[in-house]
Structure formats: structure tokens, C-alpha cells
Amino acid sequence: MTLSYAHHEPGYQAPVKASRLRAWDDSSPYHKNRPLRAPRGSDVLNLLRKPITFRNIPQLSGITVHTFVKDATEDSANLHVASMVIQAITGQRCTAHAARSNVQNWGLRAGKFVSVSADLQGEEMYHFLGKLIDVVMPRIRDWRGIKGTSGDDNGNISFGFRPDVVALFPEVEVNYDSYPPKMIPGCRKYTEVRSEDNID
């Protein structure tokens, strides 16, 4: 029954579909051997992006919250405060990173701890992302959003926040008096998104 099914009744003839591209009228010798012209008018628009289906939805694989504390070379208390802030907003224990080489212009010395980071995955990652989008970002004054050039070809997205924006996180705001205002660090977030080809 399925093999013998015909969608159109007997005698139906499909209409001839016109060519999308237009030919030249040969009214000028310059029209000879030229490629076909584009359709007339501006009603034919190309898709700006591929339609999102259940097969190509980007999937988060991890979020890294990182901050570089340049004043930690002079006073390690700045690094401790930065570690407390990052641990409060992420709920994860931070990892300290030391400078690999000497940079005289920045005052860096090899082996000196100058930055901290926290890696998020799983439920903690989605909890942090939801808090960032629903609570922190709407409260940023005169914020123009994340730049379209903040990503790369591998699906990684990175953007940063000023110290006054980091203070908008609920965990920091509720205990704002516990942190010295001048020691609250800015942070650079690095979000990893798996490409569409790897999600099936």
C-alpha cells in the first residue's frame, strides 16, 4: 500500500519552475559569454545563520574563571582576596598560577604567584552561567554586550569583567564589607563550547 501510493492524482503535471538566475538579452556585445545575472529585486535574502535544530545546538563543555592580579608581586594579600572572591562566586577551590618568566615592564618574576583560576563543569557550570546571565549581566550599567569577535574557530568564547561588575555577584554583594574594595579583582572568563560537528 505504501509503495503504490501516489500523492498526485492521475494526469497531474507539475508546473515548470523558472530559472532563478536571469540571462542577458544580448542587446550589447558586452553581454556575450557573461555569467547569468542574479534575481531581480531584493526579496531574495540569504540566511544569516544555519537554522538551529536538535542536532546542532552548541553544548558547553567547561567554564574557566581566571583573574590576573598584578599587585600580587608586591603584596600577596591581593592574591588571597582574589582567590576568596573567585571561590565565592564559583563555589570551587581556586588554583594559583606562577609566572613562567621575568617580565621587567610588568614587574613579574619567575616563580611568583600572580593569578588564580577555577574550572567549572557539570551542574556547577550551568549554575554559574545562569547566575551570570540572569543576575549579573542585566545589572551592568551602559553595557553593550559581548563583542562578536570574542570567539574563535574552535568554539571558545572569552570575555572579561571590571572589578565593579564582579562585585555585583550575589556572593560578593552580600558580604561586600568582608572584601577590601580596592582588592576585588576583575576577571576574564573563558567558556568552552563544543562545535556543531561534535554534537550528535
Features:
alpha+beta; 18% strand; five-stranded antiparallel β-sheet; 200 residues
Write the layout of secondary structure elements.
Blueprint: E1 59-68, H1 77-90, E2 95-98, E3 113-120, H2 123-136, E4 156-161, H3 163-166, H4 170-174, E5 187-194
Antiparallel strand pairs: 1-3, 1-5, 2-3, 4-5
Structure notes:
- The chain is an alpha+beta fold.
- It has a domain at 60-140 and 155-198: 50s Ribosomal Protein L5, Chain: A (2-Layer Sandwich), CATH 3.30.1440.10.
- The chain has helices spanning 77-90, 123-136, 163-166, 170-174; strands spanning 59-68, 95-98, 113-120, 156-161, 187-194.
- Strands 2-3-1-5-4 form a 5-stranded antiparallel β-sheet.
- The model is unreliable at 190-200 (pLDDT under 50).
CATH homologous superfamily assignment of the domain at 60-140 and 155-198 = Ribosomal protein L5
Classify the helix fraction into a percent range.
10-25%
The low-confidence runs, each spanning 5 or more residues with pLDDT under 50, are 190-200
Largest sheet: 5 strands, antiparallel
From the spread of the alpha carbons, the general shape counts as elongated
Distance between the termini: 34 Å
Q: Remind me, CATH topology of the domain at 60-140 and 155-198?
A: 50s Ribosomal Protein L5, Chain: A
**Order of neighbouring strands in the sheet with most strands:** 2-3-1-5-4
Continuous helix count: 4
Overall radius of gyration: 28 Å
Q: Please, what is the average pLDDT?
A: 78
The CATH architecture of the domain at 60-140 and 155-198 is 2-Layer Sandwich
Count of DSSP strands: 5
Helix vs. strand class: alpha+beta
CATH class of the domain at 60-140 and 155-198: Alpha Beta
Secondary-structure element series: EHEEHEHHE
Question: Could you tell me the strand content as a percent range?
Answer: 15-25%
